[in-house]
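Here is a tokenized protein:
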Amino acid sequence: MRDGGNSVIVVEHDRDMMLESDHLLDIGPGAGIHGGRIITQGAPGQLLAGESITASYLRGEAAIAVPAHRRKGNGKKLVLEGASGHNLRNVRLEIPLGTFICITGVSGSGKSSLVEHTLYPILNAHFFNGVRRPLPYKKITGLQHLDKVIEIDQSPIGRTPRSNPSTYTGIFTDIRNLFAASPESKVRGYQPGRFSFNVSGGRCETCKGAGVKTIEMNFLPDVFVQCETCSGKRYNRETLEIRFKGKSIADELDMTVDQAV
């Protein structure tokens, strides 16, 4: 593609791809709020001569250690026989349970067909009455050794302004309980629901607890603007008067994970 006169930009972590590039940019120095800066850019040799985390791994000074011992598991196994969907050729898959298992292979070799489109639908139907039909297979044994199956894929967790790490992980319930347990909350008769931005009572009713207002742009993506009533804090004045260690519920939600820890 490059030899055809194109400019090819790749976001990549693979060592060989990085070292084969004509121009390499290293962004860091860390992740999240600790990143966001260009550390080095230029030929790969410039990065190798630098002091970044990436450079130390490329030079072999830092490495991810290979475990000296592997988990033996619980001695039980799940066996899938005769998987023949798509390009699978009568595959027999034997999975040791109680261990960390990786399915690998070149692109298009059948990994997704075997795991996502055969094994997972079988387990989902068995435990949760899922209706997704698996690709053809002959037999599966060992289901009695499992009690559930959870699929974690690369689809976005959510795209709503109401979402945040505390709601995803479930700890927001504990945070609301902390605010409701404060002496001032008890005097006022506030319950944990008062500190939820999804129900009426403690939230800002102008933005319905979203902190932003949505402007529909018809043929363009919606635009979110800060609520003029609560200034993006999501809650009404009375709710924000309750403090835990000097911070309001809005202050808590505005923290990074590191700050909250």
